Amino acid sequence: MEAHEPASADRKAFWNRGPLWLVPFIALVVLSLGLSFLVYRASGGKEIADDAEKLTRFAREPFILWGNYGAAGLSGTWGSFPPLLPLLFGALVYPWLMIAPDFWGFRLGILTWSVVALLALHLALGRESTVSEGRRRFVLFLFAVLPSVLGAIALIPQEEIYVSLFCLALYSAAAKSRWNLVFILLVLSAFAGKYFLLVLAVPLAFASGAPIRKLALWGGTSFILLAAYVWYHRVLFGLTPIISHVIDPNGSISIWALLWNLGVVLDPALVRSLSLALVAALVLGFCLAGHRSGLSLAALMAGTLYCTLLGLSITVPAYVLWNVPLVLICIALMRARRHVIGAVVLLFFWGVGEWGEDFFRGVKLALDTDRPGGKEALAKLADRFLGAGFPYHAAQIACIGLVLASGIAQIGLLWVAGKERRDHSSLT
Question: Is residue 92 part of a domain?
Fold first, then answer.
């Protein structure tokens, strides 16, 4: 047996540090480009993503949100994007748009951001001393094959994987107790990522040991800076970014979208207020209870984002990409195999639900109204495959229900797995 030990050690070293580390990256590139090619052929080379045109414009005009974006043809919804997002997001998208058609250039840009996110996750997991090499490889490969990730590259390209990098940066800074850096990153997240990421100030403040003081400082400063940005546009152009975001229940995926699709139609202003109140209650309750129970920072942050996604009235399916790296870190830290399997299954359920909702809603809209050529081609293909009379609306409602159920179950699983890990650590 001893004669085989050196060879075994060499194989282990090769597996841990050799070329096989590239497998998740290669899988991400191959799968996303292959799926993109299928979409390209099915749509006749036409874009099927409604947001692609505006996001490519952001990449080409990085300072468009600082001027009169209304006169530039952007609606209040698009004008309410964080002002630095076009500049930073476009840094890895614009070069591809210079050398490739928009359809491929935009997807290659999103793929590049996804590779950066995978690398950042790899580095974050490397700092977790209790995570085994095998678990880290598994988690990285899982990132590369998740429907949410692949769909946001090839099907409906999204900027959300870029936003997830701010979540990872906040987690890494807080894990090292660098609270001044956390403060800077929170402000940067609001101005260059998404405003909703400010909700992470709550679990981060609890982790700092001074929740009231840190929340007052971080929240107060962010509010003043954002108010100044709104005031700047109001005075110069008569615009109100951030608060001019239009609620479209049919395009979101939350409990409010479920109610709307079930026929419970509420006033948009009321929905906005109720959703903010619900998110505040869910997040504060979860963070307070989780902090007292000793949940890990990753579990606190991931649970907070899930509470936000489930309760916010303007949540769109791909917003879960903000949370994917944090959930994968939680999976890497889980002790019980049943918890790992459950968390992975729930991530896939969310992905199937979100893209199912987007697909059935998009086909129904394309069949009922004039839509861009790519969407119309795919809708006719789907209608021939599924048959006339297919209940698209019922299928859309079922997919929203699947997303909500998987999100709620994931919160519960993060809680159970986190408490089990804490209890084991206290015993050892």
Answer: yes
Q: Which two tokens stand for residue 115?
A: 């590779």
In a domain, 403, yes or no: yes
Is 2 contained in some domain?
no
Task: List the structure tokens of 9.
Answer: 């050690």
Q: What tokens appear for 344 in the block?
A: 């992975």
Segments forming the whole domain that contains residue 221: 17-427
Residues in the chain: 428
Query: 10 Å Cβ neighbour count for 400?
Result: 27
Per-residue pLDDT reduced to its tens digit, 356-372: 888 787 777 766 666 55
CA angle in degrees (0–180, nearest 5) for 355-357-363: 95
Q: What letter represents residue 310's amino acid?
A: L
Over residues 204-224, the mean pLDDT reads 92
Structure tokens at 157: 């390209």
The count of domains in the chain is 1
The verdict on residue 34 lying in a domain is yes
> What phi, psi does 91 have (nearest 5°)?
-60, -35
* Phi (first) and psi of residue 220, to 5 degrees: -65, -45
C-alpha pair distances (Å), 279 with each of 143, 257, 286, 315, 373: 27, 15, 10, 12, 38
pLDDT of residue 3: 42
**Sequence letter at residue 293:** S
- Give the model's confidence band at 134: pLDDT under 50 very low, under 70 low, under 90 confident, else very high: confident
Judge contact between 330 and 297, C-beta under 8 A. no
